[in-house]
Write a structure and sequence with these properties.
The complex is a heterodimer of chains A (about 375) and B (about 325). Chain A has about 375 residues and is α/β, with parallel strands linked by helices. Chain A has 14 helices and 16 strands. In chain A, strands 3, 4, 5, 6, 8, 9, 10, 11 and 14 form a 9-stranded mixed β-sheet that branches. In chain A, helix 5 (about 150-155) crosses helix 7 and helix 13 packs antiparallel against helix 14 (about 365-375). The longest helix of chain A has 23 residues, at about 1-25. Chain A is globular. Chain B has helices spanning about 5-10, 25-65, 85-120, 120-135, 140-165, 180-205, 210-215, 220-235, 235-250, 255, 275-285, 290-320, and strands at about 75, 85. Helix content of chain B is about 70%, strand content about 0%. Chain B is an all-alpha fold. Chain B has a two-stranded antiparallel ribbon with strand order 1-2. Classes of the chains: A alpha/beta (about 375), B mainly alpha (about 325).
Chain lengths: ~375, ~325
């Protein structure tokens, strides 16, 4: 008895020491200045001394990608640039930015009028990642399923309750659909994914538009709620007859079947990187500039025969003049590195998208972002961009 | 106490300094520190109530008291005005907590009686240890176990069986995927068992041996002795244990979120999904806008009110059942 208690205690102490050691950098050679090499690329191009800390908060959707960026940034600068990102939800992230508690906010939806009114200083809206929302399903024996917004809305309204319904059968003439009750699964928490999904349902179905509407969370008329995309997906995977929605990466990671969705041109599109990027490409020429009004920007239901209709952008929100916004709360060095970091994220950082199942943004949008980021100032002074 | 000890008079040690009332300085310090800790917790509760009430004002102004019996929760959706009502969540909280007590309390008392009265000596320690170990399991682990084990089991076995046997009653009608009030109630029952059983065990232990012996000497069986002399004697302690269990059940968030199905509905069937206050707040706080955030905080205030109210009602009920002023066994 005493023997193993001692053993457990020893293990705990060793783990604690190792853990503290890692955070204190006992096991890595200490780097005070990261001297850039002539051949250096990305963030390694810029000299960085000591530690520069930046904080961000918001969207959970962008969190996996943001984590890759954060660790790549630390690696490229020899642990000099340390960005900490809290995935507390888009709304909470913007609230933190409004209170000037973080250097940038991340939101799955463009700021709404009341959020804009609350901002204490002028800000830029910068799209930073592109993704697709997939309609996932679990129908035994069915691998391929065609759906329309009209039918999905009827299912989520509780009007269609069985997979053998004639409206679904009409879209899938070559598939035998079983006599199986449909279990509707939706997010129980407010989320950017629900924001995109409900906007799409409202655009496709007038009953939905007039009774439920669209938002981060809505009054779902039926179904099971699950917290977070991971649980929505795993519930669909484990429940026979279920239908749900989640970012495409969650469907792929958990092996959920996802439907081909009809686009406005009338074609059924199974989401992938290419047809999601097309949706963003369609709008890139008509986007406002960084300081403009992004409130009505949406990339759902874009034209084009091969365009996936359920695509979404997610955004970083940052103050236009960091010195004026934060006062002594942000040094010029921090401001400069925030600009370096954002510029890198929307350009070279997009290559991390594929590994995380996001879709790199088309050139039209990254160019717009680079222009916006180069306009970020510190007390009226411009900051260096590549 | 302040009686002058023999040390102060008889030995070489310096007498402790005393204040005007003759109290030792160290004792004053002791009183101060313990008093401060007691004040601290009261102050915290007061601050929580003040902050919750203050932040609920916007919702109170817009919706007033009907918030309490409103059945719709409509955040900004671009078409209809925002509307917030608490009833589905109050209902879900009360039903799941009641289920938890209904299932958990008899089991807990059974465990406690076995441990104190009937268990062979060698089993007492390890069994008690295991029960208390359950209390150390984090609630998210209960939730995960709920999703991967309990929900599929309830959905495939228990719920259909209940449905076919008792489906004619409104309590068990309708189909189920396992995410429902009954599953949440079972999870909560398991979670309150360690608390309720270990406090009940302590209450039973504190019953003087003479009580049992008296009953047994009158020819009572084990069961009669336990029922008449032990349980009756320890009832205040057991009651306290149940109240603590109720507190844990009403406030539990994670495990409920993961099993209750998160539907903002009021259905009589225990096999339908619902939502509890704590779970709903945790789900929606991060993305809530200004008015919805205020409504969620008012829900928090409602939960606090429910906890206080159930506590008071239970106490009054208990007093009236057992006779006022009787405080045996505590």
């Amino acid at each position: 008895m005493t023997g193993w208690i001692v053993a457990v205690a020893v293990i705990v102490i060793v783990l604690a020491v190792v853990g503290v050691g890692f955070t204190q950098g006992w096991f890595s050679k200490s780097t005070t200045t990261n001297t850039p090499k002539a051949s250096a690329t990305g963030l390694a191009k810029f000299p960085c001394s000591g530690t520069v800390s930046l904080t961000g908060a918001g969207s959970t959707f962008v969190y996996p990608l943001m984590s890759s960026w954060v660790s790549a940034a630390a690696q490229q600068t020899g642990n000099c640039l340390q960005v900490s990102y809290s995935s507390i939800g888009s709304g909470a992230g913007i609230t933190q930015l409004t209170s000037k508690l973080v250097s940038f906010g991340a939101s799955d939806a463009p700021l709404n009028p009341s959020q804009k009114a609350g901002m204490p200083a002028p800000f830029f809206t910068i799209p930073d990642a592109l993704g697709a929302v997939s309609v996932i399903f679990n129908v035994p024996g069915v691998k391929v399923l065609n759906v329309t917004g009209q039918v999905v809305a009827a299912i989520y309204l509780g009007d269609i309750t069985n997979w053998n319904n004639s409206a679904i059968a009409a879209l899938n003439p070559h598939t035998t659909l079983p006599n199986l009750a449909i279990t509707v699964v939706h997010r129980s928490d407010g989320s950017g994914t629900s924001f995109v999904f409900t906007h799409w349902l409202a655009a496709e179905n007038t009953t939905w538009a007039n009774t439920i509407g669209a938002g981060l969370s809505v009054a779902w008329p039926t179904g099971l709620g699950e917290k977070g995309s991971t649980l929505v997906t795993s519930t669909v995977v484990s429940t026979s007859g279920a239908i749900g929605y989640a970012e495409l990466n969650y469907a792929k990671l958990q092996g959920a079947a996802y439907a081909a969705v009809q686009n406005p041109a009338g074609f059924f599109i199974t989401p992938n990187g290419t047809n999601t990027a097309e949706a963003a490409q369609e709008v890139s020429s008509s986007l406002p500039n960084g300081s403009g009004d992004w409130g009505n920007v949406s990339i759902i239901n874009q034209p084009g025969t091969t365009t996936y209709p359920l695509a979404t952008l997610t955004y970083i929100v940052v103050f236009q003049d960091l010195g004026k916004a934060y006062g002594s709360g942000m040094t010029q060095t921090q401001a400069q590195w925030l600009v370096h970091y954002l510029y890198w994220a929307v350009s070279a950082g997009q290559n991390y998208s594929a590994g995380d199942f996001y879709v790199p943004m088309p050139v039209g949008i990254t160019t717009l972002d680079e222009t916006t980021i180069s306009e970020i100032q510190y007390n009226g002074q411009s900051l260096v961009t590549p | 106490m302040e009686s002058p000890g023999p040390i102060a008079q008889g030995t070489a040690a310096p007498a402790p300094q005393r204040d005007a009332s003759g109290r030792a300085l160290g004792d004053n310090l002791f009183l101060g520190i313990t008093g401060a800790t007691a004040a601290f917790i009261n102050l915290t509760l007061l601050l929580i109530i003040v902050i919750l009430a203050d932040d609920s004002l916007p919702t109170l102004r817009v919706f007033g008291l009907p918030f309490l019996w409103g059945t719709s929760w409509v955040p900004p959706n671009g078409i209809t005005p925002q509307l917030y009502g608490a009833l589905p969540f109050i209902y879900g909280t009360l039903v799941t907590s009641a289920l938890a007590l209904l299932i958990g309390v008899p089991i807990s008392i059974g465990i406690a009686i076995f441990l104190v009265e009937l268990s062979p000596g060698w089993l007492r320690e390890p069994l008690g240890f295991v029960v208390e170990l359950l209390a150390a399991v984090p609630s998210v682990v209960y939730g995960l176990w709920g999703i991967f084990v309990l929900v599929p089991f309830m959905g495939s076995t228990v719920d259909p069986a209940l449905g076919s046997a008792l489906g004619w009653t409104p309590l068990f009608s309708g189909s189920s995927q396992g995410y429902n009030m009954l599953t949440a109630g079972v999870i909560l029952a398991i979670m309150i068992i360690p608390t309720v059983s270990s406090i009940t065990r302590d209450a039973l232990k504190s019953v003087p041996q003479s009580q049992r012996e008296a009953a047994l000497s009158l020819g009572a069986t084990n069961w009669e002795a336990t029922r008449v002399s032990v349980l009756t004697y320890a009832r205040t302690g057991i009651f306290g244990a149940i109240i603590l269990g109720l507190g844990r059940a009403t406030g539990e968030t994670m495990a409920v979120t993961m099993t209750i199905g998160n539907g903002n509905f009021i259905h009589t069937s225990l096999l339908s999904s619902a939502q509890s206050i704590a779970s709903f707040i945790a789900n929606n706080f991060a993305e809530a806008g200004y008015l919805e955030r205020s409504a969620l905080l008012e829900l928090g205030l409602v939960l606090l009110g429910i906890s206080i109210l159930t506590n008071v009602v239970a106490r009054v009920l208990f007093r009236s059942l057992t006779g006022a002023g009787e405080e045996a066994g505590s």
